[in-house]
Amino acid sequence: MPKLDKPKILVVNDDANSLFALTSLLAQWAGQESYEVLAARSGQEALRQVLMHDFAVILLDVNMPGMDGFETAEAIHARARSADIPIIFITAFLADELDRLKAYQHGAVDFLFTPVIPQVLHAKIAVFVALSVKNEELKQQARQLSLRTTELTATNKHLTREIEDRKMAERQNHAKDEFLAMLGHELRNPLSAISSAASLIGLPGVSLDGVQRAKKIIQRQSQHLGRIVDDLLDLSRAMSGKILLSRAPLDLAALVAASLETYRATGRSTDYELVQDLDPGWIDGDSTRLEQITSNLIDNALKYTPSGGRIEVRTWTENDDVVLSVRDTGVGIAADLLPHVFDVFVQGTSTLDRSQGGLGIGLSLVRRMAELHGGGIEAESKGPGGGSTFTLRLPRIEHQAAPAPAPAQTPEQGKPSVLLIEDNDDGREMMTMMLGCYGYEVESAADGLLGLAAAERFQPDLALVDIGLPGIDGYEVARRLRADPATRDIKLIALTGYGLADDLRRVMDAGFDLHLVKPVDIEQLMEAIGSCARVPVKQ
């Protein structure tokens, strides 16, 4: 504990001799009792001393000119900090009961009459000095306790925060473990179907109809795998802020209607009562990302609504917003899960008999995409069995007519010759065979240097170039082809597993004409080759 200051005693008397006598008498005991003695010749001087110091006791003369002892005592006790200082009045006159009452009313604790008896004064002073020391010790202990309490409170808050963070991390780790298990399940299902279908095609005695069905299964499950990979990549891009929107004015109602028609055409909504009420509403948005939002909301409703349930899809305008609502009569959302349905790695109870697959990250993507468009998404539910409603709000714009698309021009010449530069043997063989089936003359190469040699020898009209090549990558292949006068006019299409805006920029900077993200289906590839053939030659 810090060392305490010595208690102070203030003697107030207008008579110099009396003041000297009292201070000298008190000074005799100062070393023994460990206190300091201060003096004042008037009430005003006493008040100044009280403003500067704390006192264990004040010996105050009653009869002083100007401000007498009673007035001085009243002024001292009127100040909050000095209100509790004990005051002993000293007087040469015999005080009657009224005088004593008046003194006590002004804060006196005792009376002494002159001449003062030293032993009596010593005894009284010793009591008040001891009280002052004890009070100061208690104050210091209280300050230390307060400081310790503050430290303990801060430590407790820190520990509480650490416990909450640890619990949150455990919940997230558990959710990630469940997500990874679900991802493995979702990947194995289509891979198992693809493997079985491929084996079936090679079996002796399989019918032509069986081969066709196996081919459709391979195509469908490959597309499903592509969607899973796209969801994972889109989530990563959205969380890192690497998605750039290609905005244009569009009618949200028309976009939603087209999505619903696709669900009906593919039979995915056959077992449900699908109701739509779509009022036009124009927004400035990326049609691809908005289709993704719409599909994820409808997929979510289908996933958690039993067959025969009702799904209502509505659009309308409300003040400065265009609103999309997807309401279902499905399993609903528990109250404790509702605030977290848009969080990453959070999903409702999974069951083995779910009619729809998925990773449970669709709603996280929806929220990220909505925020990128300057909007927001909300979820409502009455609880388990009460169905769910998801409401998307996007900023409304005035109706703007989209420019008419330029008429497509067909190439006058026949199909272009194609050079395929791809290091994956199976991928190179399959794409070569597909292009050959469509009537294209195809040469192939397994790496960048072989591709450059083939391009100089074969002089193709168009080259499909994988970016991740051994030796020199696809960017360098494109730069060298553009730098060589003999190959600079070849149309170049990049094939890559990377689809970020920065990847597209690097591809175009290297000299490519188009950028395709794997896996590329044959219709997409045919369209790319056709459109590339119509593009003027890069210089």
Short description:
With 539 residues, this protein is an alpha/beta fold.
Structural commentary:
It is an enzyme of class 2 (transferase). Its EC number is 2.7.13.3. The modification 4-aspartylphosphate is found at residues 61, 466. This protein is of the alpha/beta class. Among the domains are: 8-116, Rossmann fold; 248-395, 2-Layer Sandwich (Heat Shock Protein 90); 418-534, Rossmann fold, CATH 3.40.50. It has 14 helices and 17 strands. It has helices at residues 16-33, 43-52, 69-78, 97-105, 118-201, 208-240, 252-265, 287-303, 362-372, 425-437, 448-458, 474-483, 501-510, 522-534, and strands at 8-12, 36-40, 57-61, 87-91, 108-113, 248-251, 273-278, 282-285, 310-318, 321-328, 376-381, 388-395, 418-421, 442-445, 462-466, 491-496, 514-517. The strands form four sheets. Strands 2-1-3-4-5 form a five-stranded parallel sheet, with helices on both faces. It has a five-stranded mixed sheet with strand order 7-9-10-12-11, covered by helices on one side. Strand 9 and strand 10 (321-328) form a beta hairpin. Helix 1 packs across helix 5 (118-201). The model is unreliable at 348-359, 405-412 and 535-539 (pLDDT under 50).
CATH T-level topology of one domain: Heat Shock Protein 90
Through-space gap between termini = 85 Å
Uncertain segments are 348-359, 405-412, 535-539
What's the level 1 CATH class of one domain? Answer: Alpha Beta
CATH architecture of one domain: 2-Layer Sandwich
Strand content: 15-25%
CA radius of gyration is 45 Å
Shape: elongated
User: Would you tell me the overall average pLDDT?
Assistant: 82
* Quantity of strands, as a count: 17
Strand order of the largest sheet: 2-1-3-4-5
CATH superfamily of one domain: Histidine kinase-like ATPase, C-terminal domain
Q: Which structural class matches the secondary elements?
A: alpha/beta
What is the number of helical segments per DSSP (H or I, 4+ residues)? Answer: 14
Summarize the main sheet. Answer: 5 strands, parallel
Say what oligomer this is: single chain
Helical percentage: 40-55%
